[in-house]
Amino acid sequence: MYVAVKGGERAIDNAHAWLAEERRGDLAVPELTTAQIREQMTLAVNRVMAEGSLYDPDLAALAIKQARGDLIEAIFLIRAYRTTLPRFGSSLPVDTGAMACDRRISATFKDLPGGQVLGPTFDYTHRLLDFMLAADGDVPAAPEMPVDPAPVPHVMSFLNSEGLIAQETCDGTPASDLTRAPLELPAARALRLQALTRGDEGFVLGMAYSTQRGYARNHAFVGELRIGTVPVEMEIPELGISIEIGEITLTECETVNQFTGSKTEPAQFTRGYGLVFGQTERKAISMALVDRALRWEELGEDDQGAPAQDAEFVLYHCDNIQATGFLEHIKLPHYVDFQSELELVRKLRRDATGQGAE
Amino acid sequence: MDNAALQGGFIDPARDAARAFRAGMEAMARPGTIQTLNGCTAPAPMSVAAATLLATLCDAETPLHLAGTCDTDGVRDWVRFHLGAPLVGRADAMFAVGDWDALAPLDAYAVGTPDYPDRSATLIVEVAALTNTGATLTGPGIAQTVTLSLPDGLLAARVARYPLGIDFYFTCGDCIAALPRTTKGAR
Amino acid sequence: MSDYNFAYLDEQTKRMIRRAILKGLAIPGYQVPFASREMPMPYGWGTGGVQVSAAVLCPEDTLKVIDQGADDTTNAVSIRRFFERTAQIAVTTATADATVIQTRHRIPEEPLRDGQILVYQVPIPEPLRFLEPRESETRKMHALEEYGLMHVKLYEDISRHGHIATAYAYPVKVADRYVMDPSPIPKFDNPKMEMAAIQLFGAGREQRIYALPPFTRVVSLDFEDHPFVASKADHPCGLCGAQDSYLDEVIVDDAGGRMFVCSDTDYCAGRQVDGHRGSDNKEDAA
User: Fold this and answer.
1) Model ipTM?
2) pTM
């Protein structure tokens, strides 16, 4: 005799209890602290901050711990938390030209004011598993030298002074906030950049890679990649001045792309731009390539039908929280709709065989 | 700023605004029905229902037009303090409030666009009396017909073609009724 | 959860959603864009419905949440708990006692009345989406009332299969103007959409809200020579004997034995309490 399945509430409670056990793992192993994650898994923390659109390394570390290392799950926690935060106002635009650079490289010039500063990069490591890391040990101190306090000018300013690179003009229109207004097409560049900086790194990387392989012909040079801290300032109307409210680490990438030109415009280089929280290089470079690809229309180029040129395709599918939510929702019961499909298929088959029999 | 401007907001904002919205939503979903709406007061001559509806729906994101007797220093101060809604002319208004003579004619208000018919103004018309007499109304939300007292000339003034159009609320004391653009009326 | 606002959302977000709901009611079937917020449950799992419910709930409400017609499916349980914690409202499984009903993929069998609100969870609000993936195009089609693409699809089904091959999320024309996706309810439920209650539709990920005032004309698309039929499995409910309710097919043994039971668990339980019994539920004579 069929008895309808009950006990959904108890099942959920038990699942959560088991999840908590799995999250903790073997009790003989010391528990991970959020400080350890923040300090020693910094690049994961950076990704969570970038795609969560919330700069707070401690919260990001907590989210990673709670999510058992699933970064998209951690990003989800941060996004949901961010929604609940009150907004006091907006900061002034950060001045990346005033960045205290830990890392600063340019592929377009061999040497330049400010120099090529490698910073703490994996770039030239040999990807050989280092078993010494499995045994905790002391890290020898890295060599030091005094910091040059001189500001490091943007590489683009050198190209600008010759008029070689298309000027980015600011028309003063305030950028709308992607998280406070529904996405509408066509989307202005500011909105596209917001979507890209918080878009899934894998998706943006894939899109960027496609532009390098001929899907939208675009050879990009890294004009500059800089990583470091910038102050964040906010205007306080009651005080009549702006004050520094903190400091954040940013990665900024400016790419120099093929020169365009027409009968009326002289040939110039064009730009792609990437800006991401934390030291998040791969994302910043990917973002710059995709930004440039999406600019085809305003730069008077042809639509080659490449996926990275299709703003609707890129913007609607780059958000990994939307993507995973909808992807994973197919785990939810769909038996009512499946039942109606079953009935339809049975009916069509009945009618088809009925006709055949005649 | 006058003290009156600082008073009159919701006592329990989350819960009271929820109740107020239900009354406003019932009015719009069932055109011609008269609902009770209170919870806020604004400086005279604004009605309790209009003040409460504004407090429920308006804030810094909703440009508001004050018309006629509703456009006083007291009301402006009240709006600034409680709503933070920017005060604008008719063309930019998402909401407008006043009596019919001050709000009319309708030409200057946003009626929406073919792609976005929702981007139209909502007019809150303060009336001297609100009764189920007068114009006979039909349309979505109305089972057969309903009658509602409407200001003279209002029905004829609605010239925008559906789905464009202005949506109306009528307020009197703590009573509110609504006329969405879908409602057809005959005197 | 006491640190959170009543019904979780902040007041500014609620105002934004409430304004969208009012415009939705004024333009039945038109999808109003709204700035959907990130919620504590994933996109695709009812965030649109949850945001709409959070915007309409009052402390005095009694909430029912169903998924596939059942109160006890895990996601319905999860959403009901969310509102119990954040709004402290009363909850019920009885359709007749509920003032707000949030649903995924079914309309309750028991007719709804004045004073009730039905909130639908919607995955893809755009009825033309699978015919035209571009939002920029579908918006124009709605603006121009250009629904040829849909009619062609339905007619092609008839040419190919002899029937319209859409079993759920069956498109409807609302108030003689907008074509609307009723959410993935089985087409059997379509006629119920002309009802005395208010119907609100929330699509969180897609950022759209739409609405039907009571008694709005809702017509399932069809052709004169192929009229719409609200079909269901040709069986009664094995538990309560109901002939007129939508049925779940349940596999009961390894041999593939099946039985059909009401998808609407409250409806079925109520009928059984009233003494109705289906053929799989008869008490054996001692």
Assistant:
1) 0.97
2) 0.91
